[in-house]
Amino acid sequence: MKAWIHGYSGRMGQEIVKQIHAVPKWKLIGGSSAKGLYYQEQEGLSWDRFENLASEADVLIDFSSVTGNRELFEALRTQSSISTSLLIGSTGLSPEGVEAWQQLAKQRKMAVLLAPNTSLGILLLHQVSKLIGEVLSPLHFDIEILESHHRAKIDAPSGTAKFLANGLAETLHKKVTVNREGRREADEIGVTALRGGSVFGEHEIQYLGDEEEMRISHRALSRGLFAKGALLLAQWVKGQKPGFYRLEDIRIEEMIALIKAR
Question: Across-strand partners of 60?
Fold first, then answer.
């Protein structure tokens, strides 16, 4: 698997580079960032060479920013020879930005996976939370999501918290309320964001009843886990037909198969 990393010079970009070098079946072709292109140990190359260099990759992995993601979109939209698979790990994208990627995937016949969190634990949390919600929501349990991240994180609530909340809301036919002010309503799922320190990422889903409570949570201990998950998700999207995919499109059985095949 030959990869191109967009957001190459960032913290997550460098974590993915380390993971690629540690896995024999993967090879780093190059990368791109605000500093220019990286290719065969050359840095700062002009974006004019993007089409020629990035077309060698089997999959593009984007861990940049909203601005960086938009830059990648424009590059792919205007470069006619690039139709490789793409994993988008950047968060904070607007609904309009997501819609633009959906249209591009269709027009260019690309397989694109939007993954606000590349942890396999979060994927499991998403699946399990819906099952628990289907049991407890009819029993009038209130559902709240609390997420914590480091002080430098730009978006709040996190893309992961929105992913978890929207999955529950769709399954249970409820609405999502962010940073509530005033009294809670019966048909809502609340999301609260905390920012401070150097927390990698914590997400807790609380099911609050009158006589008992239940909590399930995920806690990231290093950025390395996201890099490992990114490679598995990139491998998954590489095997898909052209189209736009979200994390909820991935079946647990598929992830188990990928893990066993490592």
Answer: 4, 86
Question: What does the alpha-carbon distance between residue 257 and residue 255 come to, in Å, rounded to a whole number?
Answer: 5
**What whole-number distance in Å separates Cα of residue 199 and Cα of residue 152?**
10
Among 149, 162, 203, 228, the one annotated catalytic: 149
Q: What is the pTM of this model?
A: 0.84
pLDDT at 62: 97
Distance CA 158, CA 102 (A): 21
Structure-block tokens of residue 167? 């999955």
The reply to whether 150 belongs to the active site is no
Catalytic residue, chosen from 153, 162, 174, 203, is 153
Q: Which segments of the chain have a pLDDT < 50?
A: none
pLDDT at residue 218, rounded to an integer: 95
Does the annotation count 149 as an active-site position? yes
